[in-house]
Amino acid sequence: MSESAPRVETGSLVLVASSVAGVRKRCRQVLQKRYAVHDVSDRPELERSMVNRRPVALLLDLALPTLGGAAGVAAIQKLRAPTRIIALSGMPDEREGIAALKAGARGYCHRDIDGPLLEKATDVVLNGEIWVGRKLIPHLLEELTVLTEQRRREVPSNFDDRLQRVTPRERQIVDLLSAGASNKEIAKRLNVTERTVKAHLTAIFRKLGLSGRLQLALFALEHGRSSRTPEAIGPRFN
Amino acid sequence: MPPITVLVAEKQKADRTTCLKLLEPESGIRVVGQARSGLEVISSSGQLKPRIVLLDLTLARSGGSSLIPAIRQKSPQSKVILLTDRATEGRTLEALSYGARGYLDRSMVAKFLPRAVRVVDAGEAWVPRKMVAKIMDRLAGLTTWASKTA
């Protein structure tokens, strides 16, 4: 029924860990058509089964005693890296979902999820994909953007060094251009010809290793050299 | 409810026309501007503060810099949806990590563009599930990096 049946041998073992008998029973009923299912109700048993039974997937109730919630997924994953973990939550929310995924879970859902959906979640995760609610995805993206920006800021840019190589006159032109001035406006401001401005710009692009006005504007924005809109840069289009 | 304002930033005229034709009949969505170059995207984002920027992936990057942080800086409330062509997964992922909130392959535009605009405007992402695994992998890599430098 699933559009993408996973490439695992039939009879592969799925482990279910929950202290709630009803959860164990339901997971077993849903999955035993396609997989061998073994269930455990406490952490010591879970740890033993992870090592000895080598499950392809683990459905892990985050309320399992002594697990420590979502963050505890990491320690269980460490016991056996190839086992794909789906975290089951009694009350899913975005923060817990992200924490579980960051701790290594490949799926996150309500522990009372419908049977067919649980089956699909298992298939998806065994296919190497991620099973999460749609609402969680923008939060993952936000997290990704924050970390990417953090790295961009912390990996030192040599732009400031390169900026040292431009002359004070050229520096004035960088400031005017990144504030949005056209060549004509820069020429007027500095009381030189447009041709001279162009010659300066060529030198600036070469010294900064940039290929044009857009790159200079982006660099200037990135390095806080201008907070104004570069609306006068380039042709206007309507 | 005020309409969802959209800036169409496509390099090719034909692609801009396609977007306009699809969005103009939609109630509750209004195209407020068009841009065809990176510089125009930055200036129009700052002036128009659109809720959605439809951004041609080929415009999203210039040299070593991504346009998306600049858009976000000029108009922090704008949400960027990338319009992509096949076989650009690496660059799409990069653009998502710079802050885009979804992407739509051009072959899917006719079918899904208005819905993608509404969904992203409502705060959700528009990405296929296959990409979520790649987002997670990248996130895991960056998390490791962050914990090493912290």
How would you describe what is shown here?
The complex is a heterodimer of chains A (238) and B (150). Chain A has helices at 21-31, 43-53, 73-79, 94-102, 115-126, 137-154, 159-164, 168-178, 183-190, 194-208, 213-222; strands at residues 13-17, 36-40, 57-61, 84-89, 107-110. The longest helix of chain A is centred in the middle third of the chain and has 18 residues, at 137-154. Chain A is an alpha/beta fold and 238 residues long. Chain A has a 5-stranded parallel sheet with strand order 2-1-3-4-5, sandwiched between helices. Chain A is rod-shaped. In chain A, strand 3, helix 3 (73-79) and strand 4 form a beta-alpha-beta unit. Helix content of chain A is 50%, strand content 11%. The relative contact order of chain A is 0.09. Chain B is an alpha/beta fold and 150 residues long. Helices cover 51% and strands 21% of the residues of chain B. Chain B has 6 helices and 7 strands; from the N terminus they run E-H-E-H-E-E-E-H-E-H-E-H-H. Chain B has helices at residues 13-23, 38-48, 67-74, 89-97, 106-121, 129-149; strands spanning 4-9, 29-35, 52-56, 61-62, 65-66, 79-84, 102-105. In chain B, a hairpin with a 2-residue loop joins strand 4 (61-62) and strand 5 (65-66). In chain B, helix 2 packs parallel to helix 3 (67-74). Chain B is globular and about 50 Å long. The N and C termini of chain B lie far apart (44 Å). The model of chain B has no long low-confidence stretch (mean pLDDT 91). Chain A binds chain B through residues 101-102, 106, 124, 128-130, 132, 134-135, 137-138, 140-141, 143-145, 147-152, 154, 180, 210-215, 217-219, 221-222, 229-231, 233-234, 236-238, and chain B through 34-40, 42-43, 46-47, 62-63, 65, 67, 69-70, 73-74, 96-99, 101, 123-125, 127, 129-130, 132-133, 135-136, 138-140, 142-143, 145-146, 149.
